[in-house]
Write a structure and sequence with these properties.
single chain; 319 residues; alpha/beta; Rossmann fold; 2 domains; 7-stranded mixed sheet; 11 helices; 11 strands; 18% strand; elongated; binds adenosine-5'-diphosphate; kinase; ATP-dependent 6-phosphofructokinase
């Protein structure tokens, strides 16, 4: 294999740049030409592709976002679109591909590997919603961003004796809410994986207030519902002034944490090694801090396990 392409696809995540850098530098170290494909599968269809040099990835390890940009591409879901991509790959002499993205991007990677293009997937999404791996690139940074927000909201919350609902991202996965809530000392954590009772949340708020607590933080995962509606209900039921903060896209930005940079660097290098070993249709994951690779289909079939123990701990520690 002489030429490898790399792209970032779907929702961006802090640490994607560190992964791109690792792919480029490991490739060049092994005398492989690396082609950067812009805007996910769109660039593959439109031929928006450039050779990457050592200097193309200088000064990016600490930057959020992705220098290759990311996008969603409906055309790539069609056979016609993918056939265009296969022609472009041939024209540019790209013999192997590294796809950095979430489960949707992995579906695209799978289709390319089935069409004969050796393809390796790297999990890049803040949601941590891929069951086969303990961590995805970007999740740790997002949790730290949410923690920072909790600290700030806590300050003003205390001054006014308010309850605060903080709505965080994660789609159907409650990991950001759970881990940021646990680390940030939230009074209640509401996630899609566990049923919740609004009266129980209210009871905790009232008990806390009666004990002299000056504020309460309620972490709400976006997959459960809307913070403003919940806030209104809680305020009506408890009489406690309740404010809502929807953190939104700030969770997707920012300089990646050390954890995400290390994970991304190791995964990026491993992806190139796997292609050079002749592997295809595989994704890289991390379990107990060890990297491994597995078949894309099998990986996508692994059901995400919710950390029930951590969830129970949030309840114990917020009595
Ligand atoms: P993520 O990778 O973050 O989960 P998406 O689900 O939006 O993000 O997927 C990113 C892109 O992957 C899509 O815009 C599309 O180009 C490609 N993709 C998703 N699903 C498929 C599929 N079933 N077949 C081919 N390509 C797909």
């Amino acid at each position: 294999m002489k030429t490898i392409g790399v792209l970032t696809s779907g929702g961006d995540a802090p640490g994607m740049n560190a992964a791109i850098r690792a792919v480029v530098r490991t490739g060049i170290y092994n005398e492989i030409k690396i082609m950067g494909i812009k805007q996910g599968y769109n660039g593959l269809i439109n031929g928006d592709i450039e050779e990457m040099e050592l200097s193309s990835v200088a000064d990016i390890i600490h930057r959020g976002g992705t220098v290759l940009r990311s996008a969603r591409c409906e055309e790539f879901k069609t056979e016609e679109g993918r056939n265009k991509a296969l022609t472009v790959l041939k024209v540019f002499g790209i013999e192997g591909l590294v796809v950095i993205g979430g489960d949707g991007s992995f579906m695209g990677a799978k289709k390319l590997s089935e069409a004969g293009i050796p393809t390796i997937g790297i999990p890049g999404t803040i949601d941590n919603d891929l069951g086969y791996t303990d961590y995805t690139i970007g999740f740790d940074t997002a949790v730290n961003t949410v923690l920072d927000a909790i600290s700030k909201i806590r300050d003003t919350s205390t001054s006014h004796g308010r309850a605060n609902i903080i709505e965080v991202m994660g789609r159907d996965c409650g990991d950001i809410a759970l881990y940021a809530g646990l680390a940030g000392g939230a009074e209640s954590v509401i996630v899609p994986e566990e049923d919740f009772d609004v009266d129980e949340v209210c009871k905790r708020l009232i008990q806390g207030k009666n004990r002299g607590k000056l504020h309460s933080i309620i972490m709400l995962a976006e997959g459960v519902g809307n913070a403003y509606e919940l806030g209104k209900t809680i305020q009506e039921k408890t009489g406690i002034e309740t404010r809502c903060t929807v953190l939104g896209h700030i969770q997707r930005g920012g300089s990646p944490s050390a954890f995400d940079r290390l994970l991304a660097s190791r995964m990026g290098a491993r992806a190139v090694e796997l292609l050079l070993e002749g592997k295809s249709g595989r994704v890289i994951g991390a379990k107990k801090n060890e990297l491994f690779d597995m078949d894309i289909d099998e990986a996508l079939d692994v059901k995400k396990e919710f950390d029930k123990k951590a969830y129970e701990l949030t309840k114990i520690l917020s009595i």
